C-alpha cells in the first residue's frame, strides 16, 4: 500500500536530462552554449539545403569544408587559437592533475589539490557508492514511514544552488579540494538517491508478490527483482547527477579546489578571451564526453528486458 | 493433498475486525483441481494465500501431504508450492529461461539440469525452446507469457500448486486454448491444485471440485455436477446461474450419454432387411456403415418402406456426426445447427459407436432431479 502511494507520488525522475531547474543553469551553461552553436550550424545547413533544393545537395560536403575552413581561418586570424595553444600544458595539468596528488588525497592528505577529472571521479564515485544504496534502503518497506519525509528534505536540498553548497561546504571545511569534493558530492548525491528510491518503489507490486510467492527472501527480492528492474531509472539519475557534477566542477576553483575553473575565472578577470576559452572548451567537451560514456553504460549495462532503449 | 482445518483470518481495520475467512474446513485430494469460487471479497483469495502464507492465518491449521505446515518456515514452504498469479509476474529483467529457472536456482539445483528442464517445459506448452529461451517477457504475447508463468511454477516440480485467476487476463479465445492445454498437462502431471476464479464456466470446466465462498464462509464444496444439480441454497443457485442445468452439459461426455451397440446396415443389405431392423428397434432411421465400420449415411424408414433394392442405392448423407469424447454441449450444439433430433456418434477414426438423441440427453440430465 505504501508502494502504491509512492508510485503515485513517484517524485520527479530525471529520465530526460532536464536542465529546467534554475540551480542547474550553471551546470548547463557551457553545454547549452555548445548546443545552441550546434543548433545554429544545423539551421544554417538546413537553410543551405532549402536554397540548394537538390541541385546544390551534392556540394554539401564542400559547403561543410568551407564553413569549417572559414571558422578556422577566423580563429587563427584573431589569435585565439595561438593563445589557447600556448596554454596547452596548463589545460592538460588542470584537466588530469597528477596521479600522486590523487593517491595522497585518497590516503587522507587533504592538502593535495585535485584537478578537474579527479574531482569528478572522486566526488562522483563517492556519490554513486553512497546514493544508490541509500535510495534503495529508503525504498524498503520498513522505511516507508520515513522515506517520503526524507525525500522531501532531499527535494528541498536540491533547490539549493550548487554554488551555495560549495560556499557552505567551504565555511565548514575551509578551502582546498576537500570542501570541493564534499560540496560536489552533496550536489551530486540528491538526484542519485531520488532516482534510486523512485525506481525501486515503482517496481510493480505483482512482481514482488510473485517473487515472494516463489520463496525468495526479502534480500533476494531486492537484489534479483527490485534493483535490476529499477536499474534504468537509477542510471538516468546517475547521468543527470554527473552532468551537474561536471558542470559544477569549474566552480570548485572558487574555494581552492583546482580544475579548469582556474582558466575560466582568470580569463574572465583578466579579460583574456583565449584563456577563458582554453578552460571553457575542455569543460564543455568533458561534459559531452561523460554524458556519452554514461549513455553507453546505460545502453549496455541495463538488461535488455527492462531497457526501453534496446 | 491439501487440508485446511478451521482456518480463520481476521483483518483488524480501523472500522473494526473483518473476518475474511471463517473456520474454513476443506480437503483437496491428491492430484485434483479444486476451484475456489465466489464474488469478490468473499475470502477465496485470502484462503488460498494462507496456504503459502502470503497471508498469515489468525488461527487454524494447514496440512500439505499430511504434515502441518502452519508453523514451518514460509520461505522453504513457498519453494515447494507452485504459484501463479493473474498478472503473471514474469521478471522483465530476466530471460524466459532465467524466469523458468527462478525456483530451481533458489533451491540450488545444478545449472545444467535446471536449464534442460526449462527447455523441456517450454516444449510441453508448445513453445519452441530454440526461439523462446533467450527472449525477454516483453517480447512475448500475453498468451505466451501466461504459459511461461504456468511452467515457471512447475519448474521445481512442486506437488502442490496455487493459481490465482491465472487465465483471467487473457482474451476468451486464447483462454479456452490455454485451459485445454493446461488440463491436458494436468492429466499427465497430476498436481494438487488450488485455483481461484470468479468465473463459473471456467470453474465447471477446470474443477474436479468446486468450493463456493460467500463473505468469508465456505458455503458448498462439491463436484461441479453435484453443485450444478443440487445447489445448497439460493445464493449458490443464483451464483451458478439460472442455466445451471445447461452448464452440466459440459460435464458429461457423449460416450456416457449415447446408446451403445446400435443396429446398423451395410451398403449390400437389402432395403427390406433395413426396414425389418428399424421396426424391430422402433427407429425411424438407421445408419449405414462402410466395410470397416465407419458411419457412411442413413436410411429413413419412410423412404425405405415399400421400396426395393439395396441400402447403398438409397441412403442419404449424414448431416453431421459427433465424436464420443466431446461433451454434450457440443453434441447439442451440433444437433441444433443440423436441425436433427439425433446424431450418430463416432470415435476418432470415424467408426460408428452409437447414437445420441435429444430425449436421451434430457433424460440423463433429468435423472438426478427425479432421484430426489
Plain-language structure description:
The complex is a heterodimer of chains A (310) and B (372). Chain A has a single domain, classed as MetI-like (MetI-like fold), CATH 1.10.3720.10. In chain A, helix 7 (116-138) packs parallel to helix 10 (177-201) and helix 13 packs antiparallel against helix 14. In chain A, 75% of the residues lie in helices and 0% in strands. Chain A is built from 14 helices and no strands. With 372 residues, chain B is α/β, with parallel strands linked by helices. Chain B has 2 domains: 2-251, P-loop containing nucleotide triphosphate hydrolases (Rossmann fold, 3-Layer(aba) Sandwich), CATH 3.40.50.300; 254-368, CBS-domain (Roll). Chain B contains 18 helices and 18 strands. A 6-stranded mixed beta sheet of chain B has the order 6-7-8-3-9-10, sandwiched between helices. A 4-stranded antiparallel beta sheet of chain B has the order 2-1-4-5. In chain B, a hairpin with a 5-residue loop joins strand 17 and strand 18 (352-357). Chains A and B meet through helix 11 and helix 12 of A and helix 2, strand 6 and helix 4 of B.
Write a brief caption for the model.
The complex is a heterodimer of chains A (310) and B (372). Chain A has 310 residues and is an all-alpha fold.
The total of helices of chain B stands at 18
What is the name of the CATH topology of chain A? MetI-like fold
The percentage helix of chain B is 25-40%
Q: What share of the residues of chain B does DSSP label as strand, in percent?
A: 25-35%
Question: What's the pLDDT, averaged over the residues of chain B?
Answer: 90
Shape descriptor of chain B: elongated
What CATH architecture of chain A would you give? Orthogonal Bundle
Sheet with the most strands of chain B? 6 strands, mixed
Strand content of chain A: under 5%
Structural class of chain A: mainly alpha
CATH superfamily assignment of chain A? MetI-like
The beta-strand count of chain B equals 18
Amino acid at each position: 500500500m505504501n508502494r502504491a502511494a509512492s508510485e503515485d507520488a513517484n517524485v520527479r525522475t530525471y529520465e530526460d536530462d532536464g536542465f529546467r531547474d534554475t540551480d542547474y543553469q550553471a551546470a548547463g551553461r557551457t553545454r547549452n552554449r555548445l548546443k545552441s552553436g550546434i543548433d545554429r550550424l544545423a539551421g544554417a545547413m538546413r537553410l543551405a539545403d532549402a536554397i540548394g533544393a537538390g541541385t546544390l545537395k551534392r556540394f554539401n560536403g564542400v559547403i561543410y569544408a568551407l564553413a569549417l575552413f572559414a571558422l578556422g581561418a577566423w580563429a587563427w586570424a584573431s589569435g585565439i587559437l595561438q593563445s589557447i595553444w600556448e596554454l596547452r600544458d596548463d589545460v592538460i595539468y588542470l584537466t588530469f592533475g597528477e596521479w600522486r596528488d590523487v593517491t595522497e588525497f585518497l590516503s587522507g592528505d587533504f592538502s593535495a589539490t585535485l584537478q578537474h577529472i579527479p574531482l569528478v571521479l572522486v566526488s562522483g564515485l563517492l556519490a554513486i557508492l553512497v546514493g544508490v544504496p541509500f535510495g534503495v534502503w529508503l525504498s524498503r518497506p520498513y522505511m516507508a514511514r520515513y522515506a517520503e519525509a526524507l525525500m522531501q528534505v532531499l527535494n528541498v536540498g536540491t533547490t539549493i544552488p550548487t554554488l551555495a553548497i560549495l560556499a557552505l561546504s567551504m565555511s565548514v571545511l575551509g578551502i582546498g579540494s576537500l570542501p570541493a569534493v564534499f560540496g560536489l558530492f552533496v550536489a551530486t548525491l540528491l538526484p542519485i538517491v531520488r532516482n534510486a528510491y523512485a525506481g525501486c518503489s515503482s517496481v510493480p507490486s505483482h512482481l514482488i508478490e510473485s517473487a515472494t510467492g516463489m520463496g525468495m527472501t526479502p534480500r533476494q527480492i531486492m537484489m534479483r527483482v527490485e534493483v535490476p528492474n529499477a536499474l534504468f531509472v537509477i542510471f538516468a539519475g546517475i547521468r543527470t547527477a554527473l552532468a551537474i557534477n561536471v558542470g559544477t566542477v569549474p566552480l570548485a576553483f572558487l574555494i581552492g579546489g583546482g580544475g579548469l575553473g582556474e582558466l575560466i575565472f582568470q580569463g574572465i578577470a583578466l579579460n583574456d578571451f583565449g584563456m577563458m576559452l582554453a578552460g571553457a572548451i575542455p569543460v564543455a567537451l568533458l561534459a559531452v564526453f561523460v554524458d556519452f560514456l554514461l549513455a553507453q553504460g546505460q545502453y549496455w549495462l541495463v538488461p535488455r528486458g527492462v531497457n526501453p532503449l534496446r | 493433498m491439501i487440508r485446511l482445518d478451521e482456518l480463520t483470518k481476521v483483518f483488524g481495520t480501523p472500522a473494526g475486525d473483518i473476518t475474511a475467512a471463517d473456520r474454513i474446513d476443506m480437503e483437496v485430494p491428491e492430484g485434483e483441481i479444486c476451484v475456489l469460487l465466489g464474488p469478490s471479497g468473499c475470502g477465496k483469495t485470502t484462503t488460498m494465500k494462507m496456504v503459502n502464507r502470503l497471508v498469515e492465518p489468525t488461527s487454524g491449521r494447514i496440512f500439505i501431504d499430511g504434515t502441518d505446515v502452519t508453523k514451518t518456515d514460509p520461505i522453504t514452504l513457498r519453494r515447494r508450492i507452485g504459484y501463479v498469479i493473474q498478472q503473471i509476474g514474469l521478471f522483465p529483467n530476466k530471460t524466459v529461461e532465467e524466469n523458468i529457472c527462478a525456483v530451481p536456482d533458489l533451491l540450488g539445483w545444478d545449472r545444467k539440469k535446471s536449464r534442460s528442464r526449462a527447455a523441456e517445459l517450454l516444449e510441453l506448452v508448445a513453445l519452441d525452446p530454440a526461439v523462446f529461451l533467450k527472449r525477454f517477457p516483453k517480447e512475448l504475447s500475453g498468451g505466451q507469457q501466461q504459459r511461461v508463468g504456468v511452467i515457471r511454477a512447475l519448474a521445481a516440480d512442486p506437488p502442490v500448486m496455487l493459481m490465482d485467476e491465472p487465465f483471467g487476463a487473457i482474451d476468451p479465445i486464447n483462454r479456452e486454448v490455454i485451459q485445454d492445454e493446461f488440463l491436458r498437462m494436468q492429466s499427465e502431471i497430476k498436481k494438487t491444485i488450488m485455483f481461484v476464479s470468479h468465473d463459473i464456466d471456467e470453474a465447471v470446466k477446470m474443477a474436479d471440485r468446486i468450493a463456493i465462498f460467500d463473505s468469508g464462509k465456505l458455503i458448498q464444496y462439491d463436484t461441479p455436477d453435484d453443485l450444478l444439480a443440487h445447489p445448497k441454497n439460493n445464493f449458490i443457485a443464483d451464483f451458478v446461474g439460472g442455466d445451471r442445468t445447461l452448464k452440466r452439459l459440459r460435464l458429461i461426455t457423449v460416450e456416457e450419454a449415447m446408446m451403445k451397440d446400435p443396429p446398423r446396415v451395410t451398403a449390400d443389405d437389402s432395403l427390406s432387411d433395413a426396414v425389418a431392423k428399424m421396426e424391430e428397434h422402433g427407429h425411424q432411421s438407421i445408419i449405414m456403415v462402410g466395410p470397416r465400420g465407419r458411419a457412411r449415411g442413413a436410411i429413413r424408414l419412410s423412404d425405405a418402406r415399400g421400396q426395393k433394392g439395396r441400402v447403398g442405392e438409397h441412403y442419404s448423407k449424414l448431416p453431421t456426426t459427433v465424436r464420443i469424447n466431446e461433451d454434450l454441449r457440443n453434441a447439442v450444439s451440433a444437433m441444433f445447427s443440423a436441425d436433427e433430433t439425433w446424431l450418430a456418434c463416432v470415435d476418432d477414426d470415424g467408426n460408428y459407436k452409437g447414437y445420441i438423441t435429444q430425449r436421451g440427453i434430457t433424460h440423463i440430465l433429468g435423472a438426478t432431479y427425479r432421484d430426489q
